[in-house]
Structure formats: C-alpha cells, structure tokens
Amino acid sequence: MRNKLALGLMVVGSLILALLLELIPLPSELSAWRAPWLLVMVVFWVLYLPSMMGIGLAWSAGLFLDAANSTPLGTHALIFTLASALTLATRRLLLTFSVFQQAVWVAVLSLMQYGILSLLLPSAGLFGVVNTTITAALLWVLLHLVLYRRLQL
Prior knowledge:
The chain has about 150 residues and is mostly helical. Helices cover about 75% and strands about 0% of the residues.
C-alpha cells in the first residue's frame, strides 16, 4: 500500500475496530475466550509499521482502553508500552519467524498482559488465561492473513 493517507486510515480504523471488539459484551460462556484485540493489533502495527505505530501510539491506545474499561489510568498503557518496546527490540528476529512462531510471541505477550493485570488489579484474577492466549495466537494468524496482504499491495 503506497498511499500514506490510506495507510494511516487503515491503521487508525483497525485500532478503533479492535477497541470496539474488545469492549463488546460477550455472553458469560464466551467471556473466557475474549481475545485481547487491541494488544494484538498494536503489536501487529508496531512489528510491520514501526515508523507509523510506535511506543507513543501504543501508550495512547492503552489509555483509551483504560478509560473505556474504567480501570486505573495507565494500567493498559503500561502493558501496551512494554509489549511494543519488547516487539521493537526483537523486531528483526520476529520478521524472520514464520507466522506461527510470531503467534507464539503474541501468546507470550498476552500472558504478560494477564500477569501484569493480576499484579496491578487483584480483582482481575486469572480467569480464562489459557483460552485468551490461544485466541490471541489465532487472532494473530487471522490478522496476518487479512492485513499483511494489504500492506504488500
């Protein structure tokens, strides 16, 4: 994708869509399988467009999620900043990995998210951690199939 405006709109639109998908209420049977949409989307854009999506935009996305979830401001901002910094630090290595190896990286970042949330918010608990890491890895593969092809055009 060569048009900068279209690329910027795709990044912002996908982040807004990820925020909305993370906030949609799910039935109690499916709530354990809720994917960390915004975390996975932020990691995707940090990995493939580091010049456009950096640590500052990841921090801003985390603040939006904190405000929307009524969690203490800075909780998700810390998580997204740490995840994007780790992704940027290992970017060259991650780009040599296959999609499934990258999905394992995203699953590890999802585990990190729940670990930090359980430390900062004791009421958060560890309900559905394994299910969420599985859905994060599957979501990564889906995003790679849908969005990565758009970046190549």
